[in-house]
Amino acid sequence: NDEPDVKCLELAGLSAAPMDAPTVALNCAKYICHNAAGHGAVREFAEHILLLKKKAKSQMEQDRIGRNNF
């Protein structure tokens, strides 16, 4: 959550920052945690990633079902 991390945040496919990160980092992050650093932000982001993975898997399954119905 330090300003030097901004370049990494910009290059990352999926990035996050805790709610108390510097504004410059918050502006670059693709996900802003509701939790502060040291208060569950990493866990929150990990759970967010798992949710995205679950949604993507569900969408792929729906796409597969849709293709099989043609």
From TrEMBL:
Protein source organism: Cirrhinus mrigala (Mrigala)
The protein's UniProt keywords, in alphabetical order, are: Nucleotidyltransferase, Transferase
* Protein name per the record: Uncharacterized protein
Give a yes or no for keyword Nucleotidyltransferase in this entry: yes
Query: Which Gene3D superfamilies does the entry mention?
Result: HAD superfamily/HAD-like
